[in-house]
Design goal:
single chain; about 300 residues; alpha+beta; Beta-Lactamase; Alpha-Beta Plaits; 2 domains; 5-stranded antiparallel β-sheet; 5-stranded mixed β-sheet; 9 helices; 12 strands; about 25% strand; elongated
Length: about 300
């Protein structure tokens, strides 16, 4: 360097090892990639990387993500995001989940382009924060907020989250099944609400265990449940109802068979509101419930 001014500072004057040592004191992983997307330096080697234990001189320098990451999917994603930065000259940030060595980690990645004096992108500076603890707390809070504590099914608040998460996903045909326990008032009046709760718990268990597909059981309130099954046609929805009825016939609470009325509605129309599906399934469920009352005139409606 000719003097102490920053403008005269040349890349060859930088001691990369010293830069790494300075930045390694920070908890975040800080790195720099060159114009080809290869690492120039990286301050932390985590278990996500393939680092040979028997080679103390191994270095990340000059390597691509796909060369060093154990998780190939996230390696390809990293390289794709780098490509976008070189093309758009804009930074990005995103979160990833990594499952390696029997451990799950969540990482936040922040990437920004580095420019030369002419405005050309000559590299990418990156920051990786391990946000696993934060994500686990968020998941725990979401679980508590969206889980019915009595039955361990999802609760009514979860429905809006489910709709939001699946709005643009390929989930059709979509089936909605409404369910309601039969005779619960009689059980509550005769044996008390603790036994009534056990009746509800058994009904929920049956509906969860009978799910063969990627479905969700939601307790809408009281003894009323909704089951959402994506990629499930009408025939399979009816098979699910039959499984629930067959199993419930063999389950008893204080010698009383668990009885559930169910009704299904299915659509392949992406424009149909889920509220309309629920309404249609409700009609079928109440028709089933009316039939149960007809066969059990002693029940108090």
């Amino acid at each position: 360097m000719s003097d102490n001014s920053f403008d005269d500072f040349e890349i060859n004057d930088i001691n990369i090892a010293f830069v790494e040592r300075i930045l390694k004191a920070l908890p975040s992983n800080i790195y720099y990639k060159d114009s080809e997307g290869k690492y120039v330096f990286c301050t932390h080697y985590w278990n996500h990387l393939k680092t040979p234990d028997d080679d103390p001189n191994w270095t990340i320098r000059g390597k691509y993500d796909v060369d060093i990451r154990k998780d190939k999917e996230n390696a390809l994603k990293a390289m794709e995001e780098d490509k976008k930065i070189f093309e758009t000259k804009k930074g990005t940030s995103y979160e990833i989940r990594i499952d390696v060595d029997g451990k799950t980690d969540y990482l936040e990645l922040i990437k920004e382009p580095v420019f030369d004096d002419s405005g050309n992108v000559i590299g990418i500076s990156g920051l990786i924060n391990n946000i696993t603890d934060k994500k686990l707390i968020e998941q725990k809070l979401e679980m508590l907020a969206t889980t019915d504590m009595l039955t361990e099914t999802k609760n009514r608040a979860y429905l809006d989250i489910w709709i939001s998460k699946n709005r643009n996903k390929d989930i059709y045909p979509l089936s909605v099944i409404m369910a309601d326990c039969n005779g619960l008032k009689i059980i509550n009046d005769k044996y008390g609400h603790l036994i009534g709760d056990k009746y509800i718990i058994e009904a929920a268990r049956i509906m969860k265990e009978c799910l063969l597909a990627d479905g969700t059981v939601i307790r809408m309130g009281g003894d009323e449940f909704m089951v959402i099954i994506p990629n499930c046609d009408k025939a399979n929805a009816e098979k699910y109802i039959k499984r629930v009825l067959d199993v419930s016939n063999s389950v008893t609470v204080l010698g009383l068979p668990v009885s559930i009325s169910l009704g299904a509605s299915t659509t392949s129309d992406v424009s149909l509101r889920i509220e309309d599906l629920i309404k249609e399934a409700d009609k079928e469920m109440y028709a089933s419930k009316e039939e149960w009352h007809r066969l059990h005139p002693e029940s108090n409606r």
